[in-house]
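During the second year of the project, the team shifted from modelling isolated chains to modelling whole assemblies. The rationale, set out in the original proposal, was that interfaces cannot be judged from single-chain predictions alone. As a representative example for this report, we include one of the complexes processed in the last quarter. Its constituent sequences, exactly as entered into the pipeline, are reproduced here:
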Amino acid sequence: MIRFLLARLGEVVGVMLAVSFLVYLVLEHDAASVAVKVIGQYSTEGQRALWLSENGYDAPFLVRYVTWLGRFVTGDWGSSTHFREQVTVLLPQHLARTGILAGTAFAIIVPVAFLFGIVAGVREGSWADRVVSFIAVATTSIPEFASAVFLSAIFVFWLGILPGASTMTSGFEWQQLVLPCLVIVLYDFGYVARMVRAAMADVMAQPYIRTALMKGASPARIVLRHALRNALVAPITVIMLQIPWLISGVLVTEVFFAYKGFGTLLYQACLNSDVALIEACAMTSVFVIVSTQLISDVLYTLLNPRIRFGLRRGEA
Amino acid sequence: MIRALLRALRRPGPAVGFAMVLLWVACALFAGWLAPYDPLKSQVPLQFPLDRAPDGGHFWLGTDLLGRDILSRLIHGARTVVLWASLAAASAYAVGIAGGLAAGFYRGPVDRVLSFFANTVLSFPVLVLYILIIVTIGASGLNIVLAVTFASAPAIFRIVRALAIDIASRDFVAAAITQGENALRIMVVDILPNASAPLIVDACLRLGYIAITIGTLGFLGLGLPPPTPDWGGMVNEGRGMAMVFPHLVVFPCIAISSLMLGLSLLADGLNEAARAGSRA
Amino acid sequence: MSILRTTSGRPAHPEVAAVADQLLKGAIDRRAFLRTVSLLGISAASAAAFAGLAGPAAAQETPKQGGTLRYGASIMEINDPMMITWTQPSNVARNVIEFLTQVDEENITHPHLAASWDPSADLTTWKFKLQPNVKWSNGDAFTTEDVAFNIRRWIAPESKSSNKSAFSAIKEVEVVNDLEFTLHLSRPTLAIPEMLFAYTCPMVHRKFIEQGGVWTKNPIGTGPYELVEFAVGQKATLKRKAAYWGTKVHLDEIRFIDLGTDVTASIQALASGQVDIVPSINTTDIDVVKRLPNATLLVGHAAQTICIRMQVTQKPFDDLRVRQAVVLAADNQKILELGYRGLGMAAENHHVAPFQPEYFKLPPVKRDVAKAKALLAEAGYKDGIDLSLVLGNTQGRWEQDCAQILQQQLAEAGIRMKLDVKPSSEFWPIWDKVPFGLTFWAHRPLAVMTLDLAYRGGGAWNESRFASAEFDAALNKATGIVDPKQRAQAMEAVERILQDAAVMVQPFWADRFGAMSTKVRGFRLHPATYNLLGNVWLA
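Output from the structure prediction step:
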């Protein structure tokens, strides 16, 4: 297990290095366009040339990359050209806000999705299954931008009971979290519920479950002791993949409600070609995502005892 | 597969879903004949549904800000979505399945290299990956296919790989290996069919998600270049006015949701039918 | 008939009498009169009285003191106020640090920190006198030492401020005493008082650099408010100071709230009462604002426009006939009606607006598709021509809407125009380099300012690469004339040369829109978006 963890950690570092190189390549291979983005479209050729030489852009690409990487690793992430602020100041605030939004949404999605998915999957074809499946299908079919339009039309413009913008500028207000959370939950819980249901139904159809049922074991005991544990394997991967989705998938919702989170920050950085900020955001999300994958792998191992680490195929 | 489809269509849910998908596919194929007007021609701005057109006909779903017939734009927009979403999904699945099977079966260095690449791509937030790719290489149908393949293939890869590892650790695969069966045969005959149930669900859903992604890109102003009719773009153009002219956003939202709903219902039916078939 | 008085009490500039004569003969309108004489140092009140206008309309309601105004704005960094590159941060700072002059919503220049100015007859020596008794928030007196520190910093050789080129005519800042200073110019410039209200020109304390050079960390100012809170991308809060040298302000607190770049979110915030003023909205948001029971729509006219320009040095636009064909196939009025919902005034492809003081009315341009086709055929494009227009929607989707209408119009003449829409950040690096592009041009009070930048041979922002000695000569002639009537006549040649060269389809002058809560009183849109909050109060 420790060897496995160490190997995975090495992989994590490798992935982050690869990503950093890709990001730097895409964003900064053309030094001249970086100058325009940083000092503005109305700058003169002379000013740009001066800026480029002042900031070491005369050096070859690889040298620039290594220099940049060195600065990045030591915590010098540069400053945002759009917000005119240090990236290390901007990023944590926005990340924390997305953490609140995504965390709240996730805390609703997982239990609801599991409850619905298990109820539906245990007895395939029952009316509970049909109702749950339909709800899951219908909600997942409405894109976030559509449900955001509809929900704000109803609750902001028509009923006037919820705030239409979630800027949180005068401190935290839970009312401002309701609409964005609702949009995310509506869109995402159906997908997870369907995955849980499919896995559950699969397991319930396995011969050993059917054998147990025929032997007269209580259905509740079967579900809890055998089916659930095996049914969790596939959805765990799916759920873990929802975390990175939540980090960027909240983008549309955040932009729509002007919620000052990580998604909005990234969107504005991309639209404004805010090089330093995109780099920092990309590396941050890479870190979060790679960590979730690591956790997902560990969970996967613990749940499926047939996989042994350190053993090759054929040796088991 | 065809038999599974026929069996699935006996139930109302999948039948309705199939009909919805078929409707949009028909719109995509015969847009030129079905659309009452030229989707690009400005006539009278901001007409409500059922208003009279200058030529004596009707704007059944009203007109947009630039006076273009919304029904015609929806029908032509189906072509954009159906064509590019299915191309993109097919391409992503080809890449993802091939990689996932190989990684899950062989493990070891193959798995490590492929997983490393997949992890590298997957460690980007998906939507941002799309935005970055589209901003860098420009918005066009082909670039959307490229972006979707690049961004979704690794996710498919991971699902296939996880399933393949699970299945490969089962006894019948171990037996096949002991009998010295050809590796490709084991992957395609023994592993893939056993992984197909969750994959079919995922494939139909993913097709819908790709349609939504194309819509979202349009919504964020990064869709196909104007004046190509594009459902997400229509929502984006109209949403500021949705309170006064709801028809600008309601119909494109219904269009994209119904395509997604149709695909999901169909996926459900296929899934159940396939499993019922394997049980029988 | 009342008498024209200078704010300084010194004799008026010699041209004032001639301009006044023009007004009396009906040769120029009152607005052109007010704008010209206010630049020459005549007090706005005496000019208005002379022109037979009532003084500032007496408010119908007595302003109420107190309250907090919430204003939707992008909160960007303000390290060095002279380096600001956008009007939005300047609107946040405007109520804390002040300007020597103030240009109002009617483009009329008023004294502010500078109580008066007197230009010499040749407009190259400008004597300024400061308002006495102005105090910085740290207790220091505001003197010419501060003014000299600021202006010298703007024009210093190492200055990176855009003020450096804007004030390149300034040779020397001469400090006469604590309250008087003189600007010596290398060439006559009438617009100096107006230029001093540019958003990069607020007065900062003379020890600004010594004390760190980061304004938000040490926000000393002469204005009625102090900055108490500032977070980039989020909010900025201003509180009213106990003492202020100028006209009393009404609001206790101004809270700037960053609502993101999406206007729809701002409107949602207005609808749910989270914000009082949304200073800039799109034409597509108008209907919603009109429906909101708690909101008022703000409309402003401004000389802002889009130019769909062709580079005369690039194929196929090096052929005048191709450019003429594009211009003839376009229907400016229709582009305005469909692309901008008719909210503005059709323009005439020469970038001078009817409401700018030097405008000369040329005969109207008529759409002629047959002639466009004929010209194309003559130029060797019998089967039509394929063009690609680059645009960046820098102001919103309406740019793309207008381009789509033009696309349909050009198609009728056999011109197949493709649209290449780029994100604005990708568009800015190439805006003046693409052969065929759509550019937004912001409001400028005088048309010659734009013409100088954009169409003079070798001009800094000459995006069409248009170069004509004849045009430059005509423009020089017009720029040197103070008298609005004579200047307008001199503009006939300028406008005609540019129009005949067919370098662009400049379809219309776009109105500006904003929205505010019905509680807000005394707020108007400023044509240059320098929104003033001095008279604003909450009912």
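Residues 39 and 192 of chain C are 8 Å apart (CA to CA). The domain at 228-240+248-301+512-538 of chain C is CATH 3.40.190.10 (D-Maltodextrin-Binding Protein; domain 2).
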